[in-house]
UniProtKB/TrEMBL annotation:
Protein name as it appears in the record: TIGR01777 family protein
Domain NAD-dependent epimerase/dehydratase: 3-228
Alphabetized PANTHER family for the sequence: EPIMERASE FAMILY PROTEIN SDR39U1, SUGAR NUCLEOTIDE EPIMERASE RELATED
Gene3D superfamilies linked: NAD(P)-binding Rossmann-like Domain
Length: 321
């Protein structure tokens, strides 16, 4: 497999790259991973090739698969108008570059896997949400939808598209958990607001396994066989297939349960509560990510036969690093 990854050096892209190379080499299969970057001099594993966006415009060879993960972290800063524009641009610009590349090359990729998030569904409380569910409009939805609709334009060039809507990614030494370690270890960790909001999450290992599963399902010709049974097909202006997958574990939890599970894992108390008004004061509009809930289920993955290694939050926190 020859795969191009935007956002390859990130929390998900780096883990995906390592796992893909390890798996394919253990099976004596050829694999080449290339990271698309703005700075080819950045540190990277010796097994990874680097390519700049400028080099991509003149590259005349194809890739079997493109994995599009580039995008600034939605929860990294308050949502000022300038920050909202930055969040959108950090997703749109890399995707536009990939579309321009796809349009120019003679041999098209067999698949474009493009990132998104469960924010696409908007705030829907404890309503179970699967890939065919509707959405509520808010900033998170619009950001995700604009990104998805742009990626789907790859079907205009005959390239199938898989959209992956990712939940909160859990890993003992990275992502959201790493940001929480200090306050929890200090004994000041606690639930947010009333703690009833649902958090849909996935372990990083299962995210990587799911992404590889989706790619291999397509490359081995099995994707179309189960698309009609999963309810996750997307409408396009042509006959090129497109589908969406919720990359979440099958057991979402309330914020209260999440807090207690983190506390138990660290053997620390969780007596504190950050009230809703204080969260809104601290984070502004971005507080919706902490206050509102989404019960997003991975129906398409389960229907396709995917098995989770860490289906519970406790297992995800205790996974081997």
């Amino acid at each position: 497999m020859n795969i191009l990854i935007s956002g390859g050096s990130g929390f998900l892209g780096s883990a995906f790259s390592e796992a893909l190379i390890k798996r394919y080499r253990s099976e004596n299969k050829e694999v080449q991973v290339t990271w698309l970057t703005r700075d080819s001099s950045q540190p990277h594993p010796v097994d990874i090739k680097m390519m700049t966006y400028d080099e991509l415009t003149n590259f005349d060879k194809s890739f079997d698969v493109i994995l599009n993960l580039a995008g600034a972290g939605i929860a990294d800063k308050r949502w000022s108008d300038a920050r909202k524009e930055q969040l959108l641009a950090s997703r749109v610009q890399p995707t536009e570059a990939l579309l321009a590349f796809i349009a120019c090359i003679n041999t098209k990729p067999k698949l474009l896997v493009s990132g998104s998030a469960i924010g696409w569904y908007g705030d829907q409380g404890d309503e179970p949400l699967i890939e065919s569910s509707d959405f509520n409009t808010d900033f998170s939805h619009k950001l995700c939808d604009d990104w998805e609709q742009l990626a789907l334009k790859a079907t205009d060039y005959g390239v199938p598209v898989a959209i992956v809507r990712t939940g909160v990614v859990i890993h003992p030494e990275g992502g959201m958990v790493s940001k929480l370690l200090t306050p929890f270890k200090m004994g000041v960790g606690g639930q947010l607001a009333d703690g009833t909001q649902i958090m849909s999450w996935i372990s990083r290992e299962d995210w990587v396994r799911a992404a590889i599963f989706i790619i291999e399902q397509h490359l081995t010709g099995q994707q179309q066989a189960h698309l009609n049974n999963t309810g996750n097909t997307l409408n396009t202006a042509n006959d090129t297939p497109a589908a969406v997958y919720n990359l979440t574990a099958p057991n979402p939890v309330t914020n209260h349960t999440f807090t207690k599970t983190i506390g138990a894992w660290l053997h620390r108390p969780t007596f504190f509560t950050l009230p809703k008004f204080l969260l809104k004061l601290m984070f502004g509009e971005m507080s919706t990510l902490l206050i509102d809930g989404q019960k997003v289920l991975p129906q398409a993955l389960l229907n396709a036969g995917f098995t989770f290694k860490q289906p519970t939050l406790k297992q995800a926190l205790e996974q081997k690093v």
